[in-house]
Specification:
Helix content is about 35%, strand content about 20%. Bound molecules: 5'-O-[(S)-butoxy(hydroxy)phosphoryl]adenosine. 5'-O-[(S)-butoxy(hydroxy)phosphoryl]adenosine binds near residues 281, 359, 388 and 501. GO terms for molecular function: acetate-CoA ligase activity; ATP binding; propionate-CoA ligase activity.
């Protein structure tokens, strides 16, 4: 959960990152003019010419770089007195101390001051062709009204409001309204189940929830309000639930529920940034809401799915909304390329300037298709690497030199202020090129996470303990001969299904709740569309006699219900036992090799308790395929 109240530095960086993203997403000479005009002025660095030199300086003298950018690009109600007070060896991250700003003022008021009629949001509703546009003026009004409503109902500075809504203007206004009154927001992805929602509400200690009666996605209605009602059974702290109407269908209201009215819309033209992420994920926070709005851009809120009502949806939308930059996930690209080029070619994509990719490695086939078919070979594809914890893009093929090559499937170059290093298994920095290691960051930057809510020790243990003095990303990376970075994947037991990261332990936790299950182990395997799929090994309790097919269905249902549909296993293999070390740890490395059918790569089995367990697992796997 992010805390957007007051002067959180995360959003400071997001806004800047978006600006630079916007700059490099333009391919024309205009972008260079923008950057040339903006950067030296921003940084007070008239002597520095070219983006490569500027990036160099952003790392070697990061303090004056970020100070100048923060002063130039943001409105502060109280100026900061200390640029930074960070110590990575202790996980201490402090930026712009003494400074105060309001992120909603930065996203709205200053643009309303200069251009109130500019379109801020284009809501690409699920029903094709029914898009709605909101100006900065309208968004400010909606945000202020909501802020007042929340305040009238007792929400105050420091409270945490849970937002359980689909990607829509009211959700954006709710985020900004919280930020405006100094409350934190806890945006929960609308695909999450009642249990997952309840857990997040409890963790955030929210007393206020904002939701809609029903959601619509891919033509299907989802009962969001009913899900909230179910979650409420285990959330005694919640005092009020605001309910807006996304559809016309009334829902049962309880004493706790407060109906919200709908607002005025109008239509205007504007520049259009089309990031199709859901606001329930960090990409939506940084590149749908805060980044674009802080920079006065027009942003698209995509409510639907890439294949509703047909696989041409994205490109039809690009034509209709005249989208200039399209930012999406490899999983969707892989899905769409299977349907064929005709779904793309039907539509006019001439407004597109650049195509962005985020969330997982983009494989060569998908990259080529995105570039050749979607972008007609004329739009650069930028593979952007970053994480929830980094707040914004960290490594991407930036046009520090607009003529520089872009290598397919490579995030390539570190962004301003980002100083990546690769570590070997001994914790030593690898200095040469053409090498792989654990990806760490040697310097802090304003957008990085500063803590884990209610668990600062976990923050330190996870990100700063593994490589003292460095921020550990958890990813592995390769640095090429030319010094470009390629992300190779997660180093820990987290899998990435369709761009959604999920800990294998979370899925095991649910599977293990089934009374018939003794234990389980979940691993990811390479999936041609989803990036990774979920493969579960399940050991039944002794004496249990069930049909495996029935139990599989039951387990899939449990995972869908308790976590989300995407987490539900593609394969469930029943086994007598799991391969374990003598100290009792499941050897996941071995399981991963088995599901990838890489028996050559099983590696060192000397710590294995009983080698026969591996043979059984291999046989079971072969039977299942
Ligand atoms: C993890 C972060 C970034 C916002 C959406 C996901 C993987 C992300 C790339 C990329 C290869 C990537 C990493 C990272 N990832 N972008 N361009 N190439 N891998 O945010 O849920 O915090 O996940 O996604 O493994 O650590 P997240």
């Amino acid at each position: 959960m992010w805390l957007p109240c007051g002067c959180t530095s995360k959003y400071v960086a997001s806004s800047f990152a978006r600006r630079t993203l916007a700059s490099y997403l333009h391919v024309s000479g205009r972008s260079r003019c923008n950057v040339a005009a903006f950067m030296p002025e921003a940084a007070g660095l008239e002597g520095v010419s070219g983006r490569a030199a500027l990036r160099e300086l952003s790392v070697s003298n990061s303090e004056s770089f970020w100070a100048a950018v923060a002063r130039h690009r943001l409105c502060w109600s109280t100026p900061f007195h200390t640029v930074q007070d960070c110590d990575l060896s202790r996980g201490k991250i402090k930026w712009f101390e003494g400074g105060k700003l309001n992120v909603s003022v930065n996203c709205l008021d200053r643009h309303v001051h200069t251009c109130p009629e500019r379109v801020a949001l284009i809501w690409e509703r699920d029903e094709r062709g029914s898009e709605m546009k909101y100006t900065y003026g309208e968004l400010l009004e909606m945000t202020c009204r909501l802020g007042n409503l929340l305040r009238r109902h007792g929400v105050k500075r420091g409270d945490c409001v849970t937002i359980y809504m689909p990607t829509c203007p009211l959700a954006v206004a709710s985020m900004l309204a919280c930020a405006r009154i100094g409350a934190a927001h806890n945006v929960v992805f609308a695909g999450f189940s009642a249990d997952a929602l309840a857990e997040r509400i409890r963790d955030a200690q929210s007393s206020t929830v904002i939701t809609v009666n029903q959601g619509v996605r891919g033509g299907k209605v989802t009962e969001l309000k009913k899900t909230v009602d179910t979650a409420m059974q285990s959330c005694p702290t919640v005092k009020q639930v605001f309910v807006a109407m996304r559809t016309d269908n009334p829902v049962t209201m309880t004493a706790r529920d407060i109906a919200m009215e709908e607002y005025v819309f109008s239509y205007h033209d504007g520049d259009v940034f089309g990031c199709v992420a859901d606001i329930g994920w960090i990409t939506g926070h940084s590149y749908v809401v805060y980044g674009p709005l802080a920079n006065g851009a027009t942003t698209v809120l995509f409510e639907s799915t890439p294949i509703y009502p047909d696989p041409g949806r994205y490109w039809d939308m690009v034509e209709r909304l005249k989208i200039n930059q399209f930012y999406g996930a490899p999983t969707a690209i892989r899905l769409l390329l299977k349907y064929g080029d005709q779904w793309v070619n039907k539509y006019d994509r001439s407004t597109l300037k650049t195509l962005g990719s985020v969330g997982e490695p983009i494989n060569t086939e998908a990259w080529e298709w995105y570039h050749r078919v979607v972008g007609d070979g004329r739009c650069p594809v930028v593979d952007t690497w970053w994480q929830t914890e980094t707040g914004g893009i960290c490594i991407a093929p930036r046009p520090s030199d607009p003529d520089a090559e872009i290598v397919p499937g490579m995030a390539m170059r570190p962004f301003f202020g980002i100083n990546p290093v690769l570590m070997d298994t001994e914790g030593e920095v690898l200095t040469s090129n053409n090498t792989s290691g654990a990806l760490c960051m040697a310097q802090p930057w304003p957008g990085m996470a500063r803590t884990i809510h209610n668990n600062h020790q976990r923050f330190i243990d996870t990100y700063f303990q593994p490589y003292p003095g460095y921020f550990f990303t958890g990813d592995g990376a390769y640095r090429s001969e030319e010094g470009y970075y390629q992300i190779t994947g997660r180093l820990d037991d987290v899998i990435n299904v369709s761009g959604h990261r999920i800990g294998t332990a979370e899925i095991e936790d649910v599977v293990n709740q089934c009374p018939a299950v003794a234990e389980s182990a979940v691993v990811g395997y390479t999936h041609s569309i989803k990036g990774q799929g979920v493969y579960a090994f399940v050991v039944l309790k002794k004496g249990i006699d069930v049909q495996e097919a029935d139990l599989s269905r039951q387990l899939n249902g449990m995972v869908s219900e308790k976590i989300a549909k995407y987490a539900s296993p593609d394969f469930i293999q029943f086994a007598k036992r799991l391969p374990k070390t003598r100290s009792g740890k499941i050897m996941r490395r071995v399981l991963r090799k088995v599901v990838e059918s890489d028996l050559e790569g099983l590696g060192d089995l000397s710590t294995l308790d009983d080698p026969a367990a591996v043979q059984e697992i291999i046989q079971g796997h072969e039977k299942l395929l």
